[in-house]
Amino acid sequence: MKKPWNSIFVASLLLCSSQSYANADKLALEDCHIDGIKQKVQCGTLQVPENYQVPAGTQISVNFAVIPAIDKTQNKEPLMFLAGGPGQAAAEIAASLRQGFTQVRKTRDLILVDQRGTGKSNPLQCEEVDDVDPYASIPEDLDVEDIKQCLAQFEGDLSQFNTENAIRDFDAVRAALGYEKIAIYGGSYGTRAGLVFMRMFPDSLSAVVLDSVGPIEVPIGTFGQSSARSFNMLIQHCMEEATCKQAYPNLAQEFATVMERLSEKPITTTITHPRLGTPTEFVISRLKFVSTLRMQLYTVEMRTMVPLVVHQAFLGNFAPLAGLTAMQDSSMGMYVGLLFNIVCNEDVPRISDEMWRKDADNNFGQDASHLAWKTVCPVWPQYRLNETFYQPVTTNVPTLIISGDVDPVTPPSNGEYSDKSLPNSKHLILKNSGHTPGPSTCAINIIDEFLTIKDPNVLDESCLNKIPSESFMTSLNGSI
Question: Which pLDDT tens digits describe the chain residue by residue (480 residues)?
């Protein structure tokens, strides 16, 4: 059976100088077209050392795209986008970023770099990742042999595919393009990368936006408590909204009942394939159910459907859950090799048994978010960063920090770590907003103003008071 890679989503390097190794002779740049964008953009590659401690050794190619500003006459510094994951390729989501950052790109170029290990920058992807049957597979199917087969597909020194080298690559692209300074926007894991950028190359940065912070002080991987917090806020908001409460008066108990049933054994049912219309076997386990729901908690738009999905599952109808599975299957786009390489080496070793236990003590998925790490990390090749990597970042670069109040993976408490350590920062918490709310209409205008005046403390934040409350789907015909 093809294994459920998508469903699991759920050190000496600091001794190296923070010098940029950019070389114009190693830069290739040309006009091109990218899927989803009609206008020409620029596509580029830059040759960089695989190991920056051996600059004349093996070279790798870093891929990037530049979306030109609508009006370049103001000559503003460009905005470099640091993607999430770890494992997201920035250039592959160029169309959505172009749309979401329209206000910013009116006067600024957008630079999208595929982090080493993603996209066209020496991707670390398992060959079968796109062949998984999301309906028949369950997270519990993952085993050590799958990991070994994945690892056998990779070439190069995996220890060099780390966060610090990624930042060296990003700054090398900046220098090769001829920019003295840039602004950066990091979303999710991109905030961790952004913080490391601030530490390693502060003089390269004019301003920083950290959207949904993964602070250096908090290891990536323990999402049990934060997911439960987000889910419990959803239930609370449902009970505060008259039509949702009327439709699902026992929502919390119905969820608990479904989880109890699935804890006994997985349920197998036949559904109509959401896209093909053919009879399809659909297997639902405890981990699959809660992992699918967790993905819906990321955005307010997807949270809308969660009460309906839970209620219908309680009634024995898993077709709505299958619909969510289809949507999730088509939108993951993660390079899981890089995801595991970074998290298993830079984060999981810092999680104690007591931290795992406390994180699993919740009323949503318990330890469901731990399975992948505990299966994969013991067999993944190891590297370790210097302890200095884990110290709070204190750089005096103007920084705007954004958190979504109902975010299931990077709650507002994460943003407080960076706000306390950074001397020139402001932390905005957007109510009724999920993960990476920066591109929303309100936040993107605040971001654009911040990038212009570079003072996080004098921004027009009035739109934050106009963010609407959550609303929920109350019937199968789509009523809200």
Answer: 344 444 444 322 333 333 444 455 689 999 998 888 988 999 999 999 999 999 999 999 999 999 999 998 888 999 999 999 999 999 999 999 999 999 999 999 999 999 999 999 999 988 764 567 889 889 888 888 889 988 999 989 999 999 999 999 999 999 999 999 999 999 999 999 999 999 999 999 999 999 999 999 999 999 999 999 999 999 999 999 999 999 999 999 999 999 999 999 999 999 888 778 889 899 999 999 999 999 999 999 999 999 999 999 999 999 999 988 877 654 457 899 999 999 999 999 999 999 999 999 999 999 999 999 999 999 999 999 999 999 999 999 999 999 999 999 999 999 999 999 999 999 999 999 999 999 999 999 999 999 999 999 999 999 999 999 999 999 887 665
Residue 123 lies in a domain: yes
CATH number at residue 415: 3.40.50.1820
Among residues 204, 196, 166, the alpha carbon closest in space to that of 48 is found at 166
β 182-187/267-272 pair status: unpaired
Instruction: Show the domain range for 423.
Output: 6-219+388-466
Pairing assessment for the beta strands 279-284 and 267-272 based on DSSP bridges: antiparallel
- On whether residue 334 sits in a domain, the answer given is no
Q: How many domains does the chain have?
A: 1
- Residue 419 falls inside a structural domain: yes
Tell me how far apart the alpha carbons of residues 429 and 170 are, in angstroms, rounded to a whole number. 28
Question: What 3-state DSSP class applies to 477?
Answer: coil
> Per the domain annotation, does 381 fall within a domain?
no
pTM of the model: 0.92
